[in-house]
Hints:
Elements: E1 2-4, E2 15-18, E3 28-30, E4 33-37, E5 42-47, E6 53-58, E7 68-70, E8 73-77, E9 82-87, E10 93-98, E11 108-110, E12 113-118, E13 122-127, E14 133-138, E15 148-149, E16 153-157, E17 162-167, E18 172-177, E19 187-188, E20 192-196, E21 201-206, E22 212-217, E23 227-229, E24 232-236, E25 241-246, E26 252-257, E27 267-268, E28 272-276, E29 281-286, E30 292-297, E31 307-309, E32 312-316, E33 321-326
Parallel strand pairs: 1-26
Antiparallel strand pairs: 2-33, 3-4, 4-5, 5-6, 7-8, 8-9, 9-10, 11-12, 12-13, 13-14, 15-16, 16-17, 17-18, 19-20, 20-21, 21-22, 23-24, 24-25, 25-26, 27-28, 28-29, 29-30, 31-32, 32-33
Amino acid sequence: MRISTGSSTSVLAVWRFACEDEIRSSPLIDDGVLYIGSYDTNLYAINAKDGKFLWKYATEGGIGSSPCAHEGRIFIGSSDKVLYAISADSGRLAWTCPTQGSIWSSPAAAFGHIFFGSDDRHLYAANFHSGRVAWSFETEGKVRSSPAVGDEAIYIGCEVVVVYAVDTGGQARWRFRARRAVTSSPALTEEMAYVGCQDWFVYGLDIRSGWPVWRYRSNGPIVASAVAQGKFVYIGSTDNHLYALDTDTGRLVWRYTAEGQITSSTAITDEAIYFGCVDGAIYSLDAKTGALRWRFQTEGPVTSSPTLAEGLIYIGSSDRYVYALPL
Length: 327
């Protein structure tokens, strides 16, 4: 096990774009356009190459949900309790799907439907074309976790200690009960579902049964979502550490100590890991060793998660800016 720290190497932003309020949503890149939500109530479309404004669509509440793209439409939830389908080309409204609670969960598109959670304690499946609710699945608490879609089921957590596997018809396949809220979104492989929990543990669950194959205890609640790649699972914790765990056993491979809580999830290449931190920084680490490659400082906490595309890393900050940074 290696505990990594290090001094930063300076990088310069390729561009930055100012929104009107803080950004907790994570960016989506689709066909050369960056889409991101802001607490100023707007969904923004920005040219990914140069950061130029294209259009924005105003909802009735702050946006913490991250956008999803599918067949020419952008889908995003809002604290105004509505899921929106927006034309990617024009920024015009295609349809809405109202719920009874704020939507912080980020939607996912699959099987002809858009899946998302709501604070009204339901996982929804809305028809892609019309927004009509095909089915809803009632959970035990608010659903702020985002759905992970597998071959035959949707996996999601809720704020009252449960991780669910729900089949494509809206029926529960299994439930796993943790000890505290599950805000983290599951990461899937063919055999496992990996999820963090506010009970301080990362769980490796059998994807077919929900049986806990292993668990790893951090030193604080976990709200960041896991990312699995190769033999490693990467996840941050509010204990200020980014962990790399063995996918099969949960054994600690290395950990990196940041200067603040990590609620951002990671983006990964073969060589590097990228994530944001409440200390206002965006970090790049060596994927195999956890050694610091560089650190970029913003002027506000970074709870947004990074997206990699076009040879750049894109991420938002509570300082109101979206940043494009070199890899």
